Amino acid sequence: MLQDGKLVIAKSVVDNEDVCLLPTMANRHGLIAGATGTGKTVTLKTIAQSMSDAGIPTFLADVKGDVSGMMVAGEPSEKLLARLAGIGVTDYDFHACPVRFWDVYGNEGTPVRTTITEMGPLLLSRLLGLTDVQQGVLNIAFHVADDQGLLLLDLKDLRSMIAYLGEHAADFTNTYGQIAKQSVGAIQRALLELEDAGGDIFFGEPALDISDWLACDSEGKGYVNILDCVKLVQSPLLYSTFLLWMLGELYELLPEAGDLDKPKMCFFFDEAHLLFDEAPKALLVKVEQIVKLVRSKGVGIYFITQSPSDIPNEVLSQLGNRVQHALRAYTPAEQKAIKAAAESFRVNPAFDTALAITELGTGEALISCLDEDGKPSIVQRAMVIAPACSMGSAASEDKRYCIDNGALMGKYKDAIDRESAYELLKARAETDAQLQAKAEAQKQAQAQAAAEEKARQKEQDALDKQLEREAQRAYKEQLKEEERRRKEAERAQRERQKALNSVITSASRTVANSLVRGIMGSLRK
């Protein structure tokens, strides 16, 4: 509860003093840890409602469905009033919080979407379970999309981009690196599996504007933004990737703010161990960087998990405000975790911290918050004050009314599918297909023309050969005729010569005979 500008979250068991979280230190992050059933959710509601009353917007991941009760004022039951009185709290102001419900699937809250580009290749690689080599190909896809002005908004955009990359791998190898067809196929299969699991509904537009969560109501109370994760947490990888994306968005979008009187917003991440389970080293480094630096942007991050050992040491060291509920020590590993948790607190001489962790009852916790100078206070064994809102779930009809009439439902309800990589690559492919068809048609026309020309030439060649043969035959006939005529002429010449010779011979005989007779006659005389 808010009292004198402080967030009073518990009462010390030792001296009944208030255990407070200072708004100026609320952005130094925090941890709520404890075994199942020890009261973590109630503590979460108490702190979140106190922040809301102080005008600090909050975000809560509701993995069990019981955080919705924050929209309903608590009921002063006899048992609850007795507990409050037992820790010295009287005249308690039961009231509700201004609440906005969100849901990745759009059923139990205003739809939450982001784009493929905003998610980025690092988180997508984790979500898709890609190897380092496959992640490299995914990085190339993002670079090519940027260089060619192709927006990656939803899964069909990314599928089209990966397919385009595979089809034109040879064109990109010299500029971006080797693109193996096996990696392209593996990414496409992973995208198909994600789509089958319902992950495609998360990607698209309008994308969530984180600044919509940094809001207060008309009375100056910070909105409690509740993300319904009952269904989402059944896909731990999708759940954790979504939360990590939100961290990245906060870090990238919010400006530097320095030290503020109170945070711009505080985030509570339930089942925090899922954020870090099997996370690649590059992602862990990114998370550590964000946790270290987002404080200066006026944002506090609170992790809720069973054991502090669920959080990497580099992140755990940044969590200044801590609430430790009971842990069990049945195994050596659990005993070691308790010892580590106890040693993370400043010692209180009034009790044994390690022993107290195993003795804490439901709703009781060890608490240490940062003081005005940013130093951890000595650990206090305290009873957490019940939230002023309902500790149960809201009635389904009340929740439905709140969802349907939310101020931001009109902004995010209907998905928008504007022109992006899918449409542009499809149009490009159709254009290429048309050009290819045109080129093929031209090629076929040229081939047909060439074939026709070849046939015409063949026909012409045949005709030329026929004409040549006929000319040769005519020439031969002419030669034969000339030879015949020559021979005929020669024969006629011979005949004439023979006749002439005959005439000459006959004449010669006549003359000779005449001469002989003349001579003979003269002799006889």
How would you characterize the overall build of this protein?
The model has no long low-confidence stretch (mean pLDDT 89). A hairpin with a 5-residue loop joins strand 2 and strand 3. The protein is α/β, with parallel strands linked by helices and 525 residues long. Strands 1, 2, 3, 4, 5, 6, 7, 8, 9, 10, 11, 12 and 13 form a 13-stranded mixed β-sheet that branches. It is rod-shaped and about 205 Å long. It has helices spanning 40-53, 78-86, 116-128, 132-147, 155-167, 169-176, 181-196, 236-253, 273-276, 281-293, 313-316, 332-343, 353-359, 396-404, 409-412, 421-524; strands at 2-3, 6-12, 18-21, 30-33, 58-62, 99-103, 110-111, 224-228, 265-269, 299-305, 321-324, 364-368, 380-384. Helix 5 runs parallel beside helix 16 (421-524). The termini are far apart. It has 16 helices and 13 strands.
Low-confidence stretches: none
- Mind telling me the C-alpha Rg? 50 Å
Strand residues, percent: 5-15%
Number of helices: 16
Task: Give the SSE order as H and E letters.
Answer: EEEEHEHEEHHHHHEHEHHEHEHHEEHHH
Overall shape: rod-shaped
Distance between the termini: 199 Å
Given the helix and strand composition, which structural class is it? Answer: alpha/beta
Mean pLDDT across residues: 89
Which range best describes the helical content: under 10%, 10-25%, 25-40%, 40-55%, 55-70% or over 70%? 40-55%
Biggest β-sheet: count, sense, barrel?
13 strands, mixed
> Total strand count, please?
13
